[in-house]
Amino acid sequence: MRHDGLNRELLSRYAPRPGRKPLLPSLGDRQQLALLCRVLSREGYNDHIAGHITLRLDDGNYLANPWELTWSELTASDILRLDAQGQVIEGDWNITPAIRLHMDVHEKRHDVRVVIHNHPEWSSVWSATGKVPPVYDQTSALVDTDPVVYDEYRGTVEQRELGNAVASALGQSKWALLANHGALVVGESIRQAHLRAITLEWRCRLAWRVQALGGGTPLSDAVIQATGARTDLNGFPFLWEAMCREEIRRDPRVLD
Hints:
This protein is of the alpha+beta class. The protein has a domain at 96-248: L-fuculose-1-phosphate Aldolase (3-Layer(aba) Sandwich), CATH 3.40.225. 39% of the residues lie in helices and 12% in strands. It has eight helices and eight strands; from the N terminus they run ααββββαβαβαββααα. The chain has helices at residues 8-14, 29-42, 99-108, 121-129, 160-170, 190-212, 221-234, 239-250, and strands spanning 52-56, 62-64, 80-82, 88-90, 114-118, 148-150, 175-178, 183-187.
């Protein structure tokens, strides 16, 4: 798979056997992006038609989900192709005016291929408080850093000034909680961006539940860094494929 982001050398040490069959069929970029939208929708990134994902291509153009469709219904043929200014150059649908945020992030972060913005159920709770959720379990530690908190909501981000402000606040971080405006997650590959997005939502959900019961003991920084540095770098092998297979079983038309 292109853009799979796997550390093959590390993987060969822990999983040397090739397996009986491929974990996924060969997938194109549009199919991978459609699957990412579907998978994340089931993970809580499902605020109706809000939210957008971009994938930077090798030719300097981008793929993105259309404005009109929910992440849970779109298929590969619905995915749009954009130029470097965020204008649609291929596809039947429209792109959200808020795509400006993505273009600003891509412009500042040449290491980033994937940008995800949505208003996830549990990440939005913590973004509304302006607080960083503690790490209470191993799954919450699959990424080794805290999200940046951008603590000023100034409206939607279709204006260049506002998109730039959010992109600047993200800096070199892997993810951010945007005050009163959900989450922003970036990655070097679809696999890595998927892991970061689901880890953030899991971490936010579990932290809320633990604190609702009176609190618990967070993991130490050393444990978080030791756990997350390895998994985040390698995108948690086999997880992305497993979630894709599950989605394809539910609705094979996602690949159309």
